[in-house]
Amino acid sequence: MPEHALLPSFDLEQPDSSLTGIKARCVALYQLPALQGKGWLPNLFWRRAADGDLFGSLRVDPWELEVLFAAVAGVPSLAGPLLDAQRPGRAAFIARSIAHGELPYLSYADGGGTP
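Above: the chain sequence. Below: its structure as tokens.
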């Protein structure tokens, strides 16, 4: 079974590329075995919420994070085209870095997200 079949709330035919959808997709992608196998703790990407939720506010740009997680999981990125429209070549750079076994630096979250 392909890993993207484990994404419970995402219909790959009707993707949600809104900021809220991208943030939710990041949480779902993070929980896939391919991402869990990296050993990256949630606090690398998210600040813990006051209620103890590990996935509070994002530390990094959600569009870049979705591209990174999609590349690791081997699924198509929803944010890649939107990110490239704002910053040409950025999505390809992130995906290429992952393909080479590197974790690229991601931009800090600016509150609303870039695209």
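Residues 13-99 form one domain.
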